[in-house]
Amino acid sequence: ERMYIFLLVVGFAFTAVGTQYFEKTVGLGLLKPNLSLFSVVKFHNDPCSAADGRNGTCYTSEECRSAGGTSTSPCAQGFGVCCVFEISCGLEASQNVTFLNLNDTSASSACDFRVCPANNDVCRLRLDFESFELAKPVEDTANDVSETAVKNLHSIVGDCLVDTFIVTAGEGPSPPVICGSNTGEHMYTSIRESCATISINVGETTTVTRSVRIKATQIPCTSEPLSDCLQYYTGTVGNVKSFNDGGTGTHLTYQEYTVCVRRERGFCSICWSTDQFKMSLETSDSGLTGNKGMSEHDLDCGRQFLEDSGTGPTYAGFGDYIEIPQGYCVGQNDDTDSVDRYCGEILACQLTAAGMTTSTPSTICSSVYPFQLRVFTDGFEEISKEDGVPPPDATPANRAPQTGFNLFYQQMPC
Question: What is the pTM of this model?
């Protein structure tokens, strides 16, 4: 005659300040001879990886279901499941990791998400753009090269007039408005003591295939990055691009933000270089000539749009630029020969006296901690009357849009 043993399984969960974990009392009986009849199994609600590569949080299957998540692969040695949270337009989430999906790409539609802090220990939210394809900003496509066409166009090139991606921070300044192609990019915002709202506004129908999928990760107050970093990179080498496919796509207007790079152990400076840099273009008072294909520095960077003169449109100035704090050429003394602002169509260190330019790209280094790069663009695109090409040679093909930057950085050992 056989005896069957029925085992009681009892589970419960609770939350401590800043930490969540699950305790499960299981009757293991003859199945686990090395354990007592009733054993307490504990596991934290740690991040986990689902079978499809997405990130989730380790919960019991009951907890995952009640929280609105999807159970995927096992975690905590089989006592839990990797619970993935995904929300669509109009919904709210407060999990450590949540995926946001744009599920309505019809013309003139709006999509809002709210992400709230999971607990009082959360201060920031990182948004990773796993897929980000929206309508591009206004581009310089005018066929009419007359003065009137240029004047009407310069004020809206780079503006997001069809689709917009807007993040409203839970506290403090919000990120700049972006659009276009930004797959693989990321940004941070604050959710300290309040929720952040992510709004995607789809305008009139265009030929672009819209797709937005965002991984939203909550960051504890004790973790990097600094509060003023819109983007944050790690590693001794890497790439930093302006929004909307920096280096090739028209750069966006009204951008003002800071990019931070974590200083790795044993490294004391960071160097920047690129051959993809078009931040702004100087033109003369007549609007007929420009400093095309040249670098500019410091006081020449940041000059604003000037009103028309009597002889023609005045599109003078370098309103768009980047800042590399106390940037210097390799071999220079960064205390006496440093330059902060860089603009024009070539990124180059200043080898000569102030105001001199060059058409040869070069490497710019900085030893200022923390490692930062600051980005500034205004609401005016210096396209001139053919991007600096005077009549009668001006043709639409001569115009080269300002495409922002695609920078390579490398940290240098101490």
Answer: 0.81
